[in-house]
Amino acid sequence: MRARLLRLSNDLRESYWFVPTVMAIGALLLALAMVYIDSHAGSAWMDDLAWLYAARPDGARSLLSSIGGSMIGVAGTTFSVTIAAVVYASGQYGPRLLSNFMSDRGNQVTLGTFIATFVYSLVVLRTIRSAGESGAGAAAFVPQLALLVALILVLCSIAVLIFFIHHVPMRIHINNVIERIGDRLIGEIDARFPVFVGTPLDERADDPRIPAAFRAETDRADHDRRAPVRSQDTGYIQLIDESTLMAAARDHDLVIRLHYQPGDFIHKGSLLLEAWPAKRCDETAANALREAFAVGSRRTALQDLRFLIDELVEIAARALSPGVNDPFTANSCLDWLSAAMADLARRDLPSRLRADGDDRLRVIAHPVTFEGFIARAFGALAQYASADMIAAKHFLGALGDVALHCDDPGRIACLARQTREFRALSDTALDGACRNTVLIRADDLLRALAEPDYRRRLRDGNAWLGGTA
Question: Are strands 353-355 and 361-364 parallel, antiparallel or unpaired?
């Protein structure tokens, strides 16, 4: 249940209806409150203010009608402009970026402001009465304070409209789009992979904490001790609630092994996980384990770092396509990918073995590796960048920048392997002077990474890495 609530919260953040609805309800309550105050306090207080004067029923109706009509017209125009900008951005940068624009709080508040002002004006307009309108001898009623608040809302709406005119083109500017994705990627890495104190526990293939049923070499009898828990939904795993998963495993005294991770597609009948021992995994336990998974129609960035990396790769790949041919946009994506991978290179990644509060193994998750992230970021983009000299040089510079933040020899070897693969691609995709330039830089980077003092070598070669002294 908690996983579904978290998914619902994310869906609400990425909707155009939730914030305007809340603001419209707030405007309705504000209108009722102002009218109530006016009906009890009257308008005598305005006589003490020389710059204010009490409005008459006909003038108040005309004012509120003008406000309401103009606000609903501006709201419609604003919505049209927003949809046009969203369609342009999703077509230009990729459909997976649509959720980034849908979740933009500025657009949601702008639309909500105009709708709220319209609702407020309509409700207050309904309460205005002329003399004798409600019966013989009935006094006129004009909510003077409510009218003053309506004028304030109009001024706020004008300010929001000015903000909106500036906000939309800035929002769809490609550098700002890339920055928001890169910032979120780095923020998610910082939240998910804190720097550990001390040395992480080494995981061995024959780790005694791992049940025999989940080891690489297992016989048929051990295999039969695993209980399969299958999916009842079809779609992308958007969220795995670790606390619910751990609680269910602890309550039923189980060790579970996950078969999927956030971002993977599953269908009804897919093997979500396996539990050991099978005799303790009854239908109640299986349902409790399924509650930890939130499945939807699309991938999200809730727990899926790969999705954010894929967004940057998609923008860069589109920019390097023959129809666009914009290597400098690809370079911006490479800059943010290198910043994220450099941040990741300084961190110890968590073990796939997850224990409960009593240090008892409960969950065997998918291994999270530096090599996997490098392959997802640079490996996926190599085939596109290798065919363009400008992007290829920047690609090698980005790998060198990541290497400056690596301490682990295995990670340096991973970057060297990625450089060699990229060099081979460029050797085939380029020719002439462009090919020679890229190969020389690739060889320089490989020589630097092969040295024990590779950091000094890279810093001394800062000019070819793309920096300035």
Answer: antiparallel
* Amino acid making up residue 371: E
- Cα 438 to Cα 424: distance, rounded to the nearest angstrom: 11
Tokens 């709080």, residue?
105
- How many whole angstroms separate alpha carbon 438 and alpha carbon 427? 8
Q: Which single residue is written with the structure tokens 């363009």?
A: 388
Six token digits for residue 207: 């780790």
**CA–CA distance, 84 with 61 (Å, rounded to integer):** 35
How long, in residues, is the chain?
469
H-helix or E-strand containing 276? strand 271-276
Could you tell me which residues are beta bridge partners of residue 27? none
Q: Which two tokens stand for residue 241?
A: 């609630």
Angle (CA) 267-270-273 rounded to 5° is 135
CB atoms within 10 A of CB 153: 21
**Sheet with 361-364: strands ordered across:** 227-230, 271-276, 255-258, 361-364, 353-355
Torsion 71-75-78-84 (CA) sign: negative
Q: Which two tokens stand for residue 76?
A: 């419609």
β-pair type (227-230, 271-276)? antiparallel
Before 277, cis peptide (omega within 30)? Answer: yes
- Cβ burial 316-334 (10 Å sphere, 16+ → b, else e): bbbbbeeeeebbebbbbbb
pTM of this prediction? 0.84
The Cα 281–Cα 226 span in angstroms is 9
**At 105, is the pLDDT very low, low, confident or very high (cuts 50, 70, 90)?**
confident
C-beta separation of 272 from 290 below 8 A: yes
Instruction: Report the range of poorest mean pLDDT among 191-205, 275-289, 306-320, 399-413.
Output: 191-205
Cα(247)–Cα(225) distance, rounded to whole angstroms? 21
What is the residue whose two structure tokens read 């207080």?
45
Q: Is 71 within 8 Å of 23 (Cβ atoms)?
A: no
The residues, any chain, with a CB within 8 Å of residue 383's CB and separated by 6 or more, are 425
Neighbours of 69 (CB within 10 A): 12
220: β partners = none
Please identify which residue in the block is written with the tokens 């400008």: 390
> How many CA within 13 A on the CB side of residue 136?
0
Strand locations in 97-220 (E): none
Over residues 356-397, the pLDDT tens digits come to 777 788 888 888 889 999 999 999 999 999 999 999 999 999
pLDDT in tens, 269-287: 999 998 988 888 888 989 9
Q: Are 306 and 192 spatial neighbours (Cβ–Cβ below 8 Å)?
A: no
As a whole number of angstroms, the distance between CA 32 and CA 412 comes to 66
